[in-house]
Amino acid sequence: MSRLIFVLLDGLRAAAADSHMGFMAALTEHGDARRLTLDCALPPLSRPLYATLITGRTPAELGLFHNGDARPCPVPTLFHKARDARRVTAAAAYYWFSELCNRSPFDPGRDRLTLDAALPIGHGLFYQRDDYPDEELFHDAEALRRRCAPDLLLVHSMNIDNAGHVSGGHNAAYRQAVREADRLLSLWIPLWQAAGYAVCVTADHGMHADGQHDDLVDDVRRVPLWFIGDAWRGPLDALGHAPRQTDIARLCLEVLGVQGAS
Ligand SMILES: [Zn+2]
Fold first, then answer.
1. pTM of the model
2. pLDDT higher than 60, residue 67
3. For residue 111, is it within any domain?
4. Is 205 left (phi over 0), alpha (psi -120 to 50) or beta?
5. Does the residue 50 lie in any domain?
């Protein structure tokens, strides 16, 4: 059983991670991180894939196909199962995670700062703007970590996805947002490792040159996945195949030592 930080870099395609993330490459080269590439589930849209990442079910299995569907997740999520196992849960994340896991529709006055251990995400700082700075988002996450000592902490940044939508996925602004995410990870991952956390870093979907992520092309479907920390070794060996996006929730629950991983 370990504590876990799950970093979701929204809109990061695998090829951009390969080219512009020197810190993550250094961790991998040194043997501290295991780096994989996988295909995201379909459709390659954020809200459906958030639900896939935290349930292990595809959007088709969940009946959740578009970003405008603000219903709570129809099956228990990683956060529900961790809370039920008395683990402390937290998230610094886009508000759709609050809607999927806690309450919908999102009411910023009530939900932006969430401190209610009875909720699946018991401690939260949720933002609504797609240009909310990643640097501030990581500070939100660290504030939650120090204040709440979570067993499971989601850190969900939006600047890579936003830069892709605004300027295109093969544009300097997109590449710079990727570099900035790598810089932020270089600041925080060593501290989180020293504090005893296992870390997972991945993306929901990639980004097309046109500034969208609807297409069935490698730029959209191929996303990176890193596992950092010894705690992943057993669950990855037991899986017996290269992890798919639908395996991530189960692997996280196994690292957390929570029964009922599905
Ligand atoms: Zn997007």
1. 0.98
2. yes
3. yes
4. beta
5. yes
